[in-house]
Design brief:
Blueprint: H1 10-16, H2 30-43, H3 57-69, H4 72-87, E1 96-105, E2 115-117, E3 122-131, E4 137-144, H5 149-157, E5 169-172, H6 179-187, E6 192-195, H7 211-220, H8 235-254
Parallel strand pairs: 1-5, 5-6
Antiparallel strand pairs: 1-3, 2-3, 3-4
């Protein structure tokens, strides 16, 4: 993990530019826009405090919102995931997935889609992610922390149906055993939901086979100030930052900065 932010390199830009709308000339280069998004992700700045050397914050924010709304960001994230899997000599799409949530506190001014997770005693939101065995994020849904994991899980898995043709198994903990198990049986033909949790007599963190990789993914969020808690007024922005974090990690693997 980088100790400080490094600007987007030309080799990294060459990897991602074909998935962005670069066909026409713009006032500000899209490479600098992406750089501004990555910088904000790493240091956690407010949009209005975008420093000199980047496009005006209004322009960077415009593309941040637009690319999430029109699914450009999702397509970029999927493409990078496939590249990274291929680099590690795996099939482009996974057969085994892990689904889990991270309860996170929200900033004081955030009131939309917010609730209390009674188990973890956190007032805020949940980041609901589905990862592969490499820890790559394939989808994310952010919702109030008081909503059930099992009920909300279908919102994150449903968009993958038809695209993840190799999907065979989803690993989850006991929170998914009832509602989500029923949904999988009714909607995902040929896909098994395996409930795997740590032994009930143990205390603290205990790594569970494959599922610990999802926990590691949550751990990487700590290296990005924008994700240290949920600072976003909308859940759409919260979801976008998680995907940008995944993209930045993969880019640093595919084309490491000098």
């Amino acid at each position: 993990m980088q100790s400080q932010y490094q600007r987007l390199t030309d080799p990294q830009w060459e990897i991602i530019k074909e998935y962005l709308p670069i066909q026409r000339k713009r006032t500000y280069a899209l490479k600098d826009v992406v750089d501004g998004i990555f910088w904000g992700l790493r240091v956690g700045n407010q949009w209005r405090n975008m420093p000199e050397g980047f496009p005006p914050w209004q322009s960077v924010y415009y593309y941040f919102r637009t690319w999430k709304a029109n699914e450009t960001l999702e397509k970029l994230n999927w493409a990078l995931n496939k590249m990274e899997r291929k680099r590690q000599e795996k099939e482009e799409t996974p057969s085994l997935f892990c689904i889990d949530t991270q309860s996170i506190k929200t900033a004081p001014f955030v009131s939309h889609c917010k609730g209390v997770d009674g188990n973890k005693k956190i007032n805020g939101r949940k980041r609901h992610v589905i990862t592969d065995t490499l820890g790559l994020v394939w989808a994310v849904v952010v919702h109030a922390a008081n909503l059930s994991d099992g009920v909300m899980a279908q919102k994150i898995v449903a968009p993958l149906v038809g695209y993840m043709h190799r999907m065979e198994k989803i690993l989850a903990d006991a929170a998914y055993e009832k509602q989500f198990m029923k949904w999988v049986e009714e909607n995902l033909l040929g896909v098994a939901l395996e409930i795997s949790s740590k032994p009930p007599t143990t205390e603290g963190f205990v790594p569970v086979k494959w599922r610990w990789i999802g926990e590691r993914t949550f751990g990487t969020f700590n290296f990005f100030r924008r994700l240290d808690k949920d600072h976003e007024k909308t859940i759409e922005s919260s979801e976008a930052w998680v995907l940008w974090q995944n993209c930045q990690i993969i880019l640093n693997r595919l084309a490491p900065a000098a």
